[in-house]
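DM from R.C. (forwarded with permission)

"hey, sorry to bug you on a friday — could you get me a structure for this? deadline for the figure draft is monday and I only need the backbone to look sensible"
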Amino acid sequence: MKTTSYLIKTINKTLKSRNIHIISQITRIISFLLICCLQFNNNCNAADFDFTPNLQKAYSEVFKLRVQSGRELLAKENPKNPFRIYIEDFADMAELINSENEKQYEKLLSKEDERLDAIEDLDEKSPYNRFLRAEIKLHWALIKIRFGHEVKAGYNVIQAYKLLEENQKLFPSFLPSLKSLGCLHVLIGSVPDKQRWIPKLLGLRGNIQLGMNELRTAAKDKIWGTEARFCTTFIQAYVLKYDAKQNAEMLQFADSQSDNLNINMVATAISLKDNRTEQAIELLKKTPKDANYLYFPIFELYKAETQLFKGNYLQAVSAYQTYLRNFKGQTFLKDTYYKLFLCHWLMGDDKKAKLYLSKINEGGNTIAESDKAAQKFYENFQKTKTLPSKTLIKLRLLFDGGYFEEAQQELSTLSEKNFTNTKDQAEFNYRAGRIFQKLSQFDKAASYFERSVAITGSQEWSFAPNSALQLGYIQQQKGQKNKAKAYFEQAIAYKNHEYKTSVDNKARAALTEMGY
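My reply, with the result:
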């Protein structure tokens, strides 16, 4: 089922793309999971659904990723209370996605049906009946994706959507349904035109603008506003476009929730994704810490990334190794080995560099785009026995870190003629285009992007699709809709490159924004 596959890829990218490699880094992990995690008000009169003050506190604690203290509060409540059931499920999700503990996953797998059955048997006249079941379905969709069961996860998403749609028809003013539907409407709405008949056939409807409006409406609510704002910021950064105004709003939001580890994690991930290393460093200094917070090894990757971008390779190595010691799952292992290769290689230690290069093929999975890229790097090296240009690597790291002026200085000493093979030439032009684009020299940037596209030709390199995407943004900014449309469609047309999911998502979202 293509739509199921698309939704899974989109959610998975949200969970695991990490540049953030974010979000992602498990950031995109507990990040998107909170798109689906909502706080409930206490206005329901149904006797079965009693959201006590203690349960509200428990939810707040779990939302902040103070999972153990949340569980201690839950222990004081009736085990049959549906809100306790929901919050326990949310806590399980946070821990499973963070740990990737296969044995714990197998142990808890039966809890999904048990919890759904327990809530379904309660008052059907309550809007919380279908809503809580839909949320548990979404929780387990995310968990199943994390453990590689993508088809089953797809069915969970579809079933959750149906429950939420029905709930919205029965209780049109019920904000929780509106909030969750908004997230799904955005994801479904980014399905490309040629495949939109598929969600229609499945009874799924989506529209990016509709979904964002639903989220913004929910954000005005005094109870649901925090979660709605979280979702809006997250989707804007990972599905749509993210600009300086939205970044300022995100920082204000993070400052207003200084004890919320989840929000701090997402803000840090977004900062790294948006080439704001110094901002990420400041957020890392503000990360709330005490024994009640769940430990997230992903923060070690954030720290490592900031040091790598600044050229502090020894400090980066230390943080990457801490991640390897503390994380027992499979996500970002390949990317971490690749980054350790880079650090030692750039320091001139070829022996250690090649040791880590070989490790890329020995462990980890390739679900995250950064892991796919690392594996492809390894495979290309095995075929060609050649390494990329250190000059281009350093240029990329300066750009990724947001050090655009320094990157421009490096660029001023280079030209395409400095590189002998076509792949390096294509990359040089793409990197130059991105640097000038960030410095608001759009015409100059466009000429480099066009050259990168021309050099790439039919090669399965990511430079051409990424260049086409950026050319689309440049034309969109100029108000040239038809030219922008052509570039976005060109970006989508490229096949088999490691960043296809993210490029396609952004191109589709831009086309939708323009009314196509």
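R.C.: lifesaver. The CA atoms of residues 35 and 231 lie 5 Å apart.
me: no worries. Residues 150-170 form the longest helix (21 residues).
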